[in-house]
Amino acid sequence: PLFDQYGQVVNYISIKEDISARKEVDEILHRRLEELLMVNTISMAAASQLDLNSLVSLIGQQLEQSFNARSVLIALHGHDSEFIEIPYWTIDKKRVTPPQIKYGEGLVSHILKTRQPLLISNNFRETAIQMGHKPVFANEYGYPKTWLGVPIISGQQTVGVISLQNYTKEFAFNDDDVRLLNTISASISISIDNARLYRAAQQEIEERIRAEQDASRRTSQLSVLYEIGHSLTKELELEVVLNSLMENCKQLAPVDVFVVGLYDSENDQVKFIKFNDNGKERPHIHLEKDLDQYITGEVIKKQITIHLPDCSDKTTHKQHRLRHTTKQHALSYLGIPLFRGNEVTGILSVQSYQPNAFSPEQIQTLEIIASQAAIAIDNARLYEVTRRKADEMSLLYEVSLGLSANLDTDQVLRNLLEKCRQILPMDSFYVSVYEERSHLIYYPLFYDRGEFKNVPVRDIRVSPGLTGEVILGAKTIYLPDTNDPKVADHYQIIHVGGTPTRSFVGVPMIVRGKVIGVISMQSYVPTHYSAEEIRLIETIATQAAIAVENSRLYEDARKEIIERREAQENL
């Protein structure tokens, strides 16, 4: 103010200055400072992470906070990769997992190819579709109103895209947002590159560790296989081979049930030579009928390994038409065919009462063991056949000596029984003598489970029985199972007290074209005799026939001499 000489205000002097430009600059500087602070915060956070998944999650969360954005997408693309990886995508702050997105399609691919930012402020649906966009979550969330995306560039490579979306407002982002997002993208590109390199290095380290573990496991596996192969090939006793095979399989896998079966292709049957269930042997289990109805038959006929992780699964049960030979059955099944060349000779099966018991590595190892086992079992069987033939020759020689060294009928027959028991499996054994003139059948020897029995004389015309059938037919009769209803329809079976036997072999003793009797061996187990065993007793019967005839002639001559002496004495 201006004052006069009396101190009164008489006028004013004022100075006016326009500061709007300075205020605008201050606001720009303040905004730039905030942007730099935002970029620095995101950059510092990104630099602190090396795990790629953690890094992109951290960047995504920082972008949501900094831009107050509810929808953020981070996409990554490797050089020459066919697909785009999207490790982070939120819509309305909800994490979503998209399907695989092929490189070359859509807005992200457009940015990756052009290496330029893309801002769609309105008419997103029409614009995006023209650019090849394929909606992913449109049915659930609709289409964005505004879409902003910028490339992530590292050196000469575009390694990814950062995108902000607004699903409620058009023109939600402006050029300042594009510039700021570009700056942030540039600042984090090195961190993303480092994280990707770190992940690649970690993957390489993990692969090397896995390779070393695989190599170590393979070396250990080969060592075990060598030991198994050595232990199998050095043994020739079949039972020893089977037991060794079972123990080796149990060391490699959780085996509760161990089975080895031999396939008879001529009769389409399987005979299990080893069936161990939780340490208990289950002998004499055979599959004689409807082999195709069993999983064993499927393995053999298709000549393939079959692995059933869970036999209780209804689909598995129906698909393989599972039938069980025991009341309690395993849940995990593995059946492996045994080969001789291209021919299937049997099956090796391991089973567990727990589902999903066998891993792929264990299955592979067991298949290798099965190939070794097939050779070892074949060798053991050949050895057994050779040894059996040698034993048979020795037995036949001893039988011949024993039969010819004695003319007493009782002693001859007891010697015959002892020799037959040494090599032939039997529970019962008898020798019958037939007198053609009287039509009577006598049983001078009848042995059953360690006891000798007296069997009454029978008239072949009244009750021939199986013995009479053999005599009348003059040929061997083998009945695998006397309980078979068809057997009762064709033969008259006479039981001589006690439990009836199941397997019956009756062989005629023939001298000079005439049947003089029958030798029979029997078992309480069905299907107990092989063709080789039947052939052997037929050979023995030929020798026994001569001995029995000589003994009978001797007895007749001795009786005649006694009668003549008595007649002379009476004179």
Could you characterize the architecture of this molecule?
The protein is an alpha+beta fold and 571 residues long. The chain has 3 domains: 32-201, 2-Layer Sandwich (Beta-Lactamase); 253-371, GAF domain (Beta-Lactamase, 2-Layer Sandwich), CATH 3.30.450; 406-561, Beta-Lactamase, CATH 3.30.450. It is built from 14 helices and 23 strands. It has helices at 20-47, 52-66, 106-114, 124-130, 138-141, 175-233, 238-252, 295-302, 314-319, 360-404, 409-423, 465-473, 485-490, 531-570; strands spanning 2-3, 9-11, 71-76, 83-91, 94-95, 101-102, 118-120, 146-154, 157-166, 257-264, 269-277, 280-281, 286-287, 306-308, 332-340, 343-352, 428-435, 440-448, 451-452, 458-459, 477-479, 503-511, 514-523. The strands form 4 sheets. Strands 3, 4, 5, 6, 7, 8 and 9 form a 7-stranded antiparallel β-sheet that branches. Strands 10, 11, 12, 13, 14, 15 and 16 form a 7-stranded antiparallel β-sheet that branches. Strands 17, 18, 19, 20, 21, 22 and 23 form a 7-stranded antiparallel β-sheet that branches. Strand 3 and strand 4 form a beta hairpin. Helix 7 packs antiparallel against helix 10 and helix 10 runs parallel beside helix 14 (531-570). The chain is rod-shaped, with a radius of gyration of 47 Å. The termini are far apart. The mean pLDDT is 83.
